[in-house]
Amino acid sequence: MIGLIIWIIGAVLTIKACFEILMLDVALWKRILVAIVLLATSWFGLAFYYLVAKGRIEDWLR
Fold first, then answer.
1. Whether the predicted model's global pTM rises above the 0.90 cut
2. What are the tens digits of pLDDT across the range 9-30?
3. What is the rounded distance in angstroms from the CA atom of residue 48 to the CA atom of residue 61?
4. How far, in Å, CA of 12 to CA of 5, rounded?
5. What is the phi-psi region of residue 10: left when phi exceeds 0, alpha when psi lies from -120 to 50, beta otherwise?
6. I need a labelling partner for 44 at 20 to 30 A (CA). Which of 15, 21, 28, 50 fits?
7. Would you say 34 and 21 are in contact if contact means Cβ atoms under 8 Å apart?
8. Between 28-48 and 2-22, two packed helices, what is the crossing angle to 10 degrees?
9. CA distances from 59 to 1, 2, 6, 17, 30 (A)
10. What is the pLDDT of residues 40-50, one digit of tens each?
11. Can you tell me the distance from the alpha carbon of 15 to that of 27, in angstroms, rounded to the nearest whole number?
């Protein structure tokens, strides 16, 4: 049961992060690429996004 709850939390946070990435003001192919990498790396990508990249990712992609 706890595993399911953790999985659901991870899925919701990943979808939220992907929506945030897709709303950035950069080229579409860059947004899609970053969203795919985030989905492929699961918890590691999610942790990196929220702890390091959230405020800087738009500058990195320009």
1. no
2. 999 999 999 999 999 999 999 9
3. 16
4. 11
5. alpha
6. 28
7. yes
8. 150
9. 40, 37, 31, 17, 12
10. 998 999 999 99
11. 20
Count of CB atoms within 10 A of residue 40's CB? 9
Torsion-angle region of residue 7: left (phi > 0), alpha (psi -120 to 50) or beta? alpha
Residue type, position 8, single letter:
I
Amino acid at 39: L
AA identity, residue 5? I
Rounded Cα–Cα distance for residues 62 and 53 (Å): 14
| DSSP string of 16-34, one letter each residue | HHHHHHHTSSS-HHHHHHH
